[in-house]
């Protein structure tokens, strides 16, 4: 047995490992940032679609007209009569709607067809609603 029984890594070994990890991270960073952007838009799309379904449910269950009022960075669900705001949401940082719009859910559950486009940088998603109030995401 030798008197010198050293454990651990040498400085050279550590530098090689750090340089290999740095190279791998340099190639992984761009796809990861795109994944984060896409994930934010997808999450916002799912939330908007759920809230549109909620507005339709409110209109048909309470037999009142509701509107979803969309601004570039937020939206609100509003009962038309008596006038009251039920829900207001702000989109995640950097996510926005392509245009402002107002969608009306009538007391009998129907609405007009509409399409909302959510954007963040080069990523976009659609929320579509047909005249019967069915909501789909693309």
Summarize the structure.
The protein is of the alpha+beta class. It contains 1 helix and 8 strands; from the N terminus they run H-E-E-E-E-E-E-E-E.
What does this structure look like?
By secondary structure, the chain is an alpha+beta fold. It is built from one helix and eight strands; from the N terminus they run H-E-E-E-E-E-E-E-E.
Topology:
Layout lengths: L10 H52 L3 E5 L3 E6 L4 E7 L5 E2 L3 E5 L8 E7 L2 E7 L5 E3 L1
Antiparallel strand pairs: 1-2, 1-5, 2-3, 4-6, 6-7, 7-8
Into which percent range does the helicity of residues fall?
Answer: 25-40%
**Secondary-structure element sequence?**
HEEEEEEEE
Low-confidence stretches: none
The span between the termini is: 68 Å
- The tally of helices reads 1
Strand order of the largest sheet: 3-2-1-5
**What percentage of amino acids are in beta strands?**
25-35%
Largest sheet: 4 strands, antiparallel
**What's the average pLDDT?**
87
Strand-pairing-aware structural class: alpha+beta
The 3D shape can be described as: elongated
Q: What is Rg? A: 25 Å
Number of distinct beta strands: 8
